[in-house]
Amino acid sequence: MKRIAIIVLSVLVFAVTTFAGEIGVIREFSQLRPALNRIKIEIEGLYDFNRDGVRDISVVRNGILYVYDPVSQMLLWQFETGPNDSVFLRGFVPFGDITYSILSMEVEDTDEVRIINTANNMTAYNDAGRVVGILQLPGRGPVVLSYVEQDNIYRVIGEVNGNSSASTVSNDFQQRVFDRLGDYRLDLKFQADPGLRLAYDPDLFDPRGDTDLDGDGHLDIPMLAADSSGVSGMVVRGGDSLEVLWQFPFPEEHKANILKGFHGFVDANGDGEKEAILGDNLAVTLDGTVHTIAENFQILDVNDVDSDSLEDIIGLNTVDSTIVVYGLANPTSVSDYDPAEIHFRLFQNYPNPFNPSTSISFTLQISGFTSLKIYDVLGREVATLVNENLEAGVHHQRMLDASKLSSGVYYYALQSGGKREIKKMLMVK
Hints:
4-stranded antiparallel β-sheet, mainly beta
């Protein structure tokens, strides 16, 4: 196989000294860009500012970022930004004994990473780029992974030793080659009858750990490698060590298909080794062999839909537009699925926090009497949005005017077909 050379650039430190140490660039990877639309954040409690076990609520108004406790409704922290800046809170991370907020900002059409000391609201780090993940490195603590599009590089930002000087690291990483364990083969497990579809919901079918290639419990970092001719392959770095786990030079005959998307690493054929699921219909074993899952097939996601402990490949039959599922086990029937369990779903209201109106969406698999009600924190009903028979499918209900409600936390409950789901929302005046 052709080797892909990846040069790790000089480690640059753009830190502002605080009494906790320095926050700066720990490592930098050039000629790379994200292979995923998102890299999942794996630190629990990332949005829990006061560490009470409850996710806190952030909202930006008039150039100020506010963070509220959803239980006490108290203001926990605020940070003033420019009135025309777009600000997104990515979470709170402890570097040493101090909690820092991680912000993604758009300042004058430029993406920016900003790390703020919440004790004094001073900027500890500020540089071009956008936050794509927050990882936990053994022996070092949490780090922020950012991507700088104009320079086509990743930066790993975290707590650094203020007395250490920047160092240069340059390596030609050895290709890691695996022996193939038999042929890759999947069977058709399910295909919807005309007029019946297996629900596909990206939020529901989103298994944790689908970027964990080496199975160590840390989400690994898939990246696209680029050279002078453009994108040339994939590089996967360990989420705990940042070292290269796997490299895959894209074969020219499959390159266009592969670049349509990366869906994660799964052991779908039961051989004990994970495969990379790529493009419209491809599975790549770790020895670099490309396998076609099925013709006339477009991958949507991977998930164990029938609980046989093996991930299944969920996709679209492009001939008849039905949802199909491929996996290792024998073909299954519709009776193996619980459509009501799959389809009954209450979504988070938008916008949230809201004032004075918000929209609530939900899906029903079966038709029937449905209620959607709003309750205050004491469990008292304050509004009824739906109280009637509804058809199966997707529904959107708008809470047109909540101006009579006081600021605070409310709960909305969906009930239909013997199932009930509750979510929380925040009214802010």
